[in-house]
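Training component of the fellowship. As part of building independent skills, the fellow (R.M.) carried out the full modelling exercise for a liganded target. The chosen ligand was FE2/S2 (inorganic) cluster. The inputs are recorded below so that the supervisory panel can assess the work.
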Amino acid sequence: MIRLSQWIKACSLDQVKEGQLFGFHSDDKKILLANQKGKIFATDLICTHADADLSTGFLSDEGVRCPLHLSVFNLQDGKPQNLPAEIPLKTYNVKIEQDEIYVEV
Ligand code: FES
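Fellow's submitted model of the complex:
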């Protein structure tokens, strides 16, 4: 089955202020939004190492740090910067239209 990507509306821009994380669910997808220095990134919400919700983690210049075992994931390519996580997070395209954030899933 071919699954075409589609843009889904995530939330309004003012729900993800600079330095903040925001998690949401859409059908079977669990997505994390992060506002790093005014730019919005979208990745999977659940850590690739175990079942940790990254929206309860910590955002820094390096990326998002998992709250459970503290791996940091780069927001552009999803790659873990330190163990124990070894598998990259999936990343998603983001667009902003009329102060609403959309993610391509
Ligand atoms: S659950 Fe995220 S690093 Fe272990």
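The panel noted the following from the submitted structure. Strands lie at 7-12, 21-26, 29-36, 39-44, 58-59, 64-65, 72-73, 91-92, 94-97, 100-104. The radius of gyration is 13 Å.
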